[in-house]
Fold each of these.
Amino acid sequence: MLQLFTKELKTMHVAVFQMEVLAGKPDENRERVKTWVEQLCREQLERPLTIVLPELWTTGYQLEDLGELAEEEGVETIAFLQQLARAHRIHMVAGSIATKKDGGIYNTALVIDAQGKLVYTYDKVHLVPMLNEPAYMQGGSVPPALFELDGVKMAVLICYDLRFPELARRLALEGAEVLFIVAEWPLARAMHWKALQQARAIENQFYLLSCNSVGSHNGTDYAGTSMVIDPWGEIIVEGSSTEEEWLQCKVDFSKAAEVRDRVPVFSSRRPDLYR
Ligand SMILES: O=C(O)CCC(=O)C(=O)O
């Protein structure tokens, strides 16, 4: 049964850091995130503010060195983010980082609230054959679930997960109002990146916010084109395909209810014929 949308909180500011990740340099990447957050928070004083980071933003796709670079349970980066979140009173959909646990290496998304609490983690379930990810990492065994920031139901998927519409639909049916996609999506498949994001937003009638990286590593160029897409499928802001930059906007959560009134996809569903 589809749940009702959040009534109390109508709007939230978001800022997406379309970052050029420096592969194999976690200290420098953390420092660059800190500098960005400080600059952003000098300019943006309104709260709630949620910031978004890309996939594997501490290490990049330096997969062959993850044995050394991946963090035990993500402890160092989590502590770093918690401190930053508390200091600036910002929520963080903090992309993903390489973590070591139970003898394996995982691609783990992190969500931290403005009080510095780690509210959600998710280990990427679909590893990317095209980037040889399965040779270096383990896939998570728990499906993505909802988390809440200021009472708004949200979810996060990691990059390749975007290609599996059943994940996004299940999250929408559970009541997700916003879907974040954190990514290092290659330029070679940029057309898919853009079309799939818009499709997920249109078919599920929720906000979709993505954060992709730019730059290149080991011969792979990344596609940038981070986006904020509203529940009608309109692109509100869109990053360039090459430049490190940040995108900012205000999202209005009442919009999804309007869209669902206009095109009542969810009440037209026939779950008796399909799941
Ligand atoms: O699906 C794709 O084309 C890209 C996926 C990817 O790069 C990733 O999951 O890191």
Amino acid sequence: MTEIIQKKLNDSPAMRWTALVLIASMMFFGYMFVDVMSPIQALMESQRGWTPDVFGTYAASEYIVNVCGFLIIAGVILDKTGIRFTGELSASMMLIGAVIKFIGITEWFQTTAMADWLNSWWVSMPASAKMACFGFMIFGCGCEMAGTTVSKAIAKWFKGKEMALAMGLEMAIARVGVFAIFSISPIIADKMGSVVAPVAFCTVLLLIGLITYTVFTFMDKKLDSQTGVTAEESDPEEEFKFSDLGKILTSEAFWIVALLCVLYYSAIFPFQRYGANMLQCNLDGISAEEASNIFRWFPIGAAVITPFLGNFLDRKGKGATMLMCGALLLICCHLVFAFVLPETKSAVIAYSTIVLLGISFALVPAALWPSVPKIVDEKILGSAYCLIFWVQNIGLCFVPKLIGNILTSTNEDNPAVIAAKEAGADFIPYDYTVPLIVFAGFGVLALIIAIYLKAVDKKRGYGLELPNIK
Ligand SMILES: NCCCC[C@H](N)C(=O)NCC(=O)O
């Protein structure tokens, strides 16, 4: 009898890589939106009155609802409803949040009665910033939920195939999004003469992201029909249970990784918000466009190297060592920005430090995320990732605000800042030394924890230094 073996959709390399492109597009556009304002901070200050303090509050708003427990609920939604519904929900939340933020910063909104009302309380926060924060809160819930959903989707489509490479590439594509927006946001703002245009552009891209994910859901439905799955993720063993939270939260290894994650990323993503402005200030007031041109090599450096490091980790191991090297590099880079760059004002030093920071940003994520399955049970892996994101989001929420406050308070008596403000200048030459020392401090703590993790790994034999491919 001839046996007919039906090939599943993800058995075809073309189909599974198409699926990756579709889902990674959503994250690509999402990461673009996250940083659309970062390179036009000086313009936001001159056109909408967003001081560093306001900018810090705005940056924190992306994570606030996640920190209040949304990420835990997101884990439940994902495990109960599956990747199709959760992905659509995430992409829709990102789009709705983006539209609210876009409306909030338009010229038109500033003339409305609602803006007058918003301006009447908490007066240091302009109405545009309040609306943008509200939109960014909704966007942030969608974006972080999408991050977990995409990991689960890649695991489903690439299980037993090129899973690590696919995850590395997805992260790399997202970093390219940051590179792209740092390149084009100031250009669009300049050409259109307004800060609204780049936000409008990214909002349209998020709509495209929703469409690409919708196309993926049709492919995923087809895959399920081929594998005979009727209700998604119906295996009760795989489901999120609240009792699992206790198991994870009482694990020492989980806390080591979660703390390392929050400390390291607190010196990366919040820095990304201020990086271009910091370069502008430390390189004697180069234009926002020139500063973005330098800064964009940070995510692109990470994007290029991450898949290679993932491959190295798969074959040679050395995960814990990579974490230590990444943290060490981070400290050196922030200290160079704090003390060497303001003295030398050298573009060469700025470029090389940015590239080195990009290498650090490749080393740590490439080693950190694949380490999690080595320290927690596969059954509770989804919950563990959600909880690590949750702890990480606490840092990402409060650190930008902390940095904004420090930047404002340490520059209160800075004569150059006072003079620029009095003259109504477009560019305010802030002194970034103290915020950069704080970032380096996070790196020092991350390094100590990475060293401790390596020692714990040696004692308990998690295999963090071993290759993934046996
Ligand atoms: N909203 C941008 C920050 C994404 C944070 C996310 N929880 C994460 O850690 N992603 C992995 C990465 O390395 O980008």
Amino acid sequence: MCARSALPDVGPAVAGVLDAAASPFADAVVWAQGDVAWRGTGGWTVLLTGRDRLRRLSALWQAAVAGRPDPAAPVRGWISSTFADDSAEPAVLRVPERLARADADGVRGIEQHADGAALAAAAAADPDARLLTGEDFPLPADTAEHAWDDVGYAAGVREVLERLARHGDGAGREPLEKVVISRTLTVPAEDADLWRAVEALRADYPQTWVFAVGGLVGATPEILATRHAGEVSSRVLAGSLPRGATAAEDAALRARLAADERLGHEHRWAARSVVDALAPVVELEDADPAPTVLTLPNVHHLATAVRGRLRDGGGTVLDVVAALHPTAAVGGTPREAAVRLIAEVEPVDRGRYAGPVGWMDETGDGVIALALRCGQQVSGGIRLHAGGGMVPGAVPEEEVVEVGVKLQPMRRALGLR
Ligand SMILES: C=C(O[C@@H]1C=C(C(=O)O)C=C[C@H]1O)C(=O)O
């Protein structure tokens, strides 16, 4: 049975999650949306490298929990995978032993009775998976010396625009329609700063999903896939403008975003990539859903909701994500050519930025977001990431501003200007 008990060490300062100082930040799991927040500690961590990470994580999870789903005590696992399958950084599966779930009615403690031996066996069966035993989460080394500054990022944008133009002229080897390019910024941060950042993100960005898994922390507005009782949904964002200073400015920016041809084009590639990838596994409600404008405290986005019913054999929420990732919201179109160009041009491995992050239960249901507006804890600090989609006609100076706007949530949460 699921043991539920009051947790004596829960205080209002951490908004209903377990005592924040009790474990290293990178060992904890945080997942919060609106009023509901989860925090997990202890338990098991599997790191996984090599090809086809999402499907292997899904298989590993199913092997570890298969045959023993217990409706009275369902076990949840959190995953955070990489943008690229050949990233030097590993994908992460975290199965906390103790969870605290906080909502408007209070806080509940949940002990997860995962089968550690089954998890260890499932990890041992995959030659590129490793179960951490008795060690802190291994943080990646910092890469600040390779990172682009504003000038470097603008040059990177220009290079991508040249490649897009060359392909447009028929001079490239293959067509290239859209590429999402990103930059990093490393700032100093201790565990206590990151815990405070979690609370600040929750307070300032209530429409987003706030997460921390293996030291990757952020507040994302984008959902790759949810799976619940046979229903699947996805929320695609692409095409952005900064917030205005006044309500009138904001109204004008929203109207411009809804009407702008280039931004609409950029959005359509992203929405199409999700619709096309979902169609074989999901019976879609609408094969051509129209975008709306989503307004966040720092930015306006074009947003498309995609919904449908999972077809037989569609797999777990992670299998659905495996069919989607990377979407053209973070990769580009066509996918393989864009991902190759990103690897060639960007100076820093994206690691788990722009990768799937979220949870999954024993039945394969769950919520998997896209890790944006986030940073990866590194030794001595945090490496923030942000990017933007490029289609012909993009203006490098505007892209520098946009990526700065997308870095804002984490900078502010860390107390930086
Ligand atoms: C790449 C990022 O965001 C993505 C790119 C967007 C764009 O180019 O307009 C908008 C939302 C996201 O899908 C990021 O936040 O780092």
